[in-house]
UniProtKB/TrEMBL annotation:
GO biological process: fungal-type cell wall biogenesis; transmembrane transport
Annotated organism of origin: Aspergillus bombycis
Xref: PANTHER family: FLAVIN CARRIER PROTEIN 2, INTEGRAL MEMBRANE PROTEIN (AFU_ORTHOLOGUE AFUA_7G01610)
Protein name: ML-like domain-containing protein
InterPro entries membership: TRP_C (IPR010308), TRP_Flc/Pkd2-like (IPR040241), TRP_N (IPR032800)
Pfam families: TRP, TRP_N
């Protein structure tokens, strides 16, 4: 009873707090950027917060104004490119020093609170305060009273307190992915090779799709807030996480190796930082601070992602580098624990049966080598992006050396494994006439290199080559084209289209269901590439269309991500309901062997049998005939 009472109180407390969270309605902006070619207003710092509860808007401004005279403000409020509120404001109606009349000067407004009329507040729809990652823009045209012409144009991106970026989402997906990965390894050790490979495929497909979404967030296109925050949910798949401990280590390492740390995060409270790209956007350089670009910094691509994750631009590579090695160490320790702990656990729970259950993968040395290769395979997209980007970024000489070394090491590991698989298949094909026997029935080959080809049909194992090439080209495109979003989008579109066509034609995976999901994932990646091309504004589309495309991007990727998660959870559910493997379950790889290969093998055996029968009959009849004619010349 006390437990129930505490639980009830806890639930009531959460609901009570949720009322205050839901009641908090606010619209904010932290960057004021020009939308005209003049430089009448130069911004160092801008903050704005509108709270409809008390009809007030708080403004903080620090910058330079180069115009003098009486002005009016034509304010246009747009949501997803659609203008829903237009008003004209006379600055003389508000007690703002330096704005009535406007004086050419360096102006600092520490904090000014303006009271808005009920008509203005009522013109803002209630959904604007609750819809996640509101894509709203307040565009202000300054009109001279004397000439009735536009003096300048500025705009501010407005966001609310609701967002699709939730740390809990990333942690949940990470736990599910980790469970799928380790479940596939444990099941393969226990002899459930068929279900193990299915779960491994589902886990790899989910992880690769999340990595693809994270890589979209690393591109240099102009993204709406919803896309930025949605792709931020998956940056953990690229080993980008923020902790103060890692920040301290990476900053110390860079300074000790001759680099100059960036100061964007530390100066965020004193400068105006915009995260949306415009035509006049500046790509922040290697050690550029706010003062190097005039106290107004606009970020895009990898640096924008790092800033949103709480990282300085010069710490991005080293953070990914350290997290990757941490994950690799954890996986290796888990494999070692599996080696020494699983056998003892099975002996306690299953008795004598446990010794047989571990027989298929008794060669733990090969299994550990396969574990190292699996780590390199899963982390290769991240290494291709950040390793190549560090060569261009040049944070320090030591970090460049680390980037080159890590990329070469993983490339050599995967290249050598691919070569050995091809060599093994070619060497044994003449003996078996079926690659299923040579690749999928060889426990040593499966333990060491199975992570490369276990998901594929027997005669489509070579598909790992275009997959690795696709990953490498995609990574270097994102890394080296940060200054040219249009070229980046075009190359990504070509790569995604080619990969989709190849997957649809070859259909390399083990069954129809796997091929259907893989083709669907490739199709959505192609759609994302098309969306990226639209976001470069090459078609000069209206803002409303860009907003609609952003919503399509979010819903399309969110729905398919949910489908893949459910797909994996269903596999884990069936894995939990498995009974003990039969005596030959680890030899049964039926979903790996193509029907054509089996038919060829059966035809060959049948043909050999038919060829032996006449020869035996002929020999027997000859001997009996000779026995019946003892007086023949041959006798």
């Amino acid at each position: 009873m006390p437990v129930r009472r505490r639980l009830s109180r806890g639930i009531l407390g959460v609901l009570y707090a949720a009322q205050f969270i839901q009641a908090l309605q606010i619209l904010e902006s932290t960057a004021l950027v020009p939308c005209s070619d003049d430089s009448v207003i130069n911004t160092n710092l801008f903050k704005m917060a509108l709270t409809p509860g008390n009809n007030s808007v708080m403004i903080e401004f620090d910058g330079e104004i180069t115009f003098s005279g009486m002005v009016m403000l034509d304010v246009d409020v747009l949501a997803y490119g659609y203008s829903f509120l237009t008003m004209r404001i006379d600055l003389c109606d508000y007690d703002l020093s330096g704005f009535c009349p406007m004086i050419s000067q360096n102006l600092t407004v520490p904090s000014a609170v303006l009271t808005l009329s009920d008509d203005i507040i009522s013109g803002i729809p209630g959904i604007a305060y609750t819809f996640p990652d509101l894509d709203a823009v307040v565009r202000v045209n300054m009109i001279s009273n004397s000439t009735n012409t536009s003096v300048t144009c500025v705009e501010a991106s407005v966001v609310n307190s609701s967002t699709v970026y939730q740390a809990a989402v990333g942690w949940t997906l990470a736990v599910i992915t980790g469970l799928g990965l380790f479940a596939s390894i444990i099941l393969s050790v226990l002899g459930y090779l068929s279900i193990s490979t299915q779960i491994s495929f589902r886990t790899a497909l989910l992880l690769s799709f999340m990595q693809s979404q994270a890589m979209v967030g690393l591109t240099a296109m102009e993204f709406k807030p919803m896309i930025q925050n949605w792709t931020q949910d998956f940056q953990w798949t690229m080993s980008i996480v923020h902790t103060d401990f890692l920040d301290t280590i990476t900053t110390w390492f860079q300074r000790s190796t001759g680099g100059t740390p960036s100061t964007l995060r530390s100066e965020a409270g004193t400068i105006s930082i915009g995260l949306l790209k415009r035509s006049d956007e500046v790509l922040v350089g290697r050690s550029m601070s706010a003062s190097a670009s005039g106290a107004e910094v606009l970020l895009r691509g990898i640096i924008r992602m790092g800033y949103r994750a709480g990282l300085e631009s010069t710490n991005i590579f080293m953070t990914g580098h350290l997290v990757f090695h941490f994950i690799a160490i954890v996986m290796l320790l888990a494999l070692i624990a599996l080696k020494f702990g699983l056998s003892a656990f099975l002996k306690k729970t299953q008795g004598k049966r446990s010794g047989y259950s571990l027989a298929p993968l008794a060669d733990w040395q090969q299994f550990m080598r396969g574990g190292l290769g699996r780590i390199a395979y899963l982390g290769y997209p991240q290494i291709c992006v950040f390793g190549m980007w560090e060569i261009y970024q040049q944070d320090s000489a030591a970090e460049i050396l680390l980037a080159i070394t890590l990329w070469l090491a993983t490339t050599v590991i995967l290249g050598h494994a691919t070569f050995r698989v091809l060599q093994h298949a070619r060497a044994t094909k003449g003996l078996n006439e079926t690659l299923a026997c040579s690749l999928h029935f060889d426990s040593r080959c499966m333990a060491q290199w199975g992570y490369l080809y276990a998901h594929y049909r027997a005669h489509a194992f070579y598909f790992i080559i275009p997959l690795l090439l696709y990953t490498f080209l995609k990574g270097i495109t994102i890394a080296f084209a940060q200054q040219n979003p249009l070229a980046q989008a075009i190359v990504l579109l070509i790569l995604e289209a080619g990969f989709l066509i190849g997957t649809a034609i070859v259909r390399p995976y083990v069954d129809k269901k796997a091929n259907a999901f893989a083709i669907a994932a490739a199709a959505i990646n192609l759609a994302n590439a098309i969306f990226c091309l639209i976001f470069t504004n090459i078609f000069d589309q209206p803002d409303l269309m860009t907003g609609i495309v952003a919503l399509l991007f979010f819903f399309l990727n969110a729905i398919f991500t949910l489908v893949l998660v459910i797909f994996l959870l269903i596999g884990l559910f069936y894995a939990c309901r498995l009974k003990d493997p039969t005596a030959d379950s680890w030899r049964s790889y039926h979903n790996r062997i193509s029907l054509q290969s089996m038919r060829r093998l059966l035809r060959r055996e049948s043909r050999q049998t038919l060829e032996l029968v006449p020869l035996t009959e002929g020999t027997t009849s000859t001997k009996s005939h000779r026995q019946q004619r003892p007086n023949s010349p041959s006798s």
